[in-house]
Description:
CATH topology of the largest domain: Rubrerythrin, domain 2
Shape: elongated
Oligomer: single chain
Strand content: 15-25%
Number of domains: 3
CATH architecture of the largest domain: Single Sheet
Number of strands: 8
Order of helices and strands: EEHHEEEHHEEEH
CATH class of the largest domain: Mainly Beta
Number of helices: 5
Helix content: 10-25%
Amino acid sequence: MCLPIQLKIGGHRCVENISRSHCPVCLGDIHTSRIPCHIPDCGHLLHKMCFDQLLASGHYTCPTCQTSLIDMTALWEYLDAQAELMPVPKKYENQRIYIFCNDCHKTSKTKFHFIGLKCVHCGAYNTTQNVKRRMSLVADEPTSAYLDAQAELMPVPKKYENQRIYIFCNDCHKTSKTKFHFIGLKCVHCGAYNTTQNVKRRMSLVADEPTSA
């Protein structure tokens, strides 16, 4: 296995048998591969070549655990600025959403904003809605059906009813352009709410702004 020479510098802590795994991108064996590997902060090894391809395609999170692969501070600051420029309607300004942060691995209750759901602990927008917390109240209903019903009960303001968001579905692995709703972004292909916003498509419109890429 080929490791980055930078690991010789500093206090790297070796983890036994960490290389006895497959690259989550190409599924090639890490230990026997002659391709240099990359070790992100989360510790899930992947080939350096695959890591570069992920970033080039606009995917900035670990395929295994969804933790950010690089420093995303510049993007979080950009989203903060966008959120200030586009305040939510007064009707929803006290709305709070239960979330789980993929970066600091903490749960919290954060303010709703259609730009994104910001972690109150680390400030990241790499978050997902805490469906388990929400579904504990309706265990007898399927998740998607429950969210569909909630979306009908809480229509978005007319100002935003034509808003469309580019998303990637983590279930059917397809991209699409879906209607915005603060309940969640629904995949138009399979109907799942297990989706993430397509950051690359969004950032292509603001290439002159600082990004973590």
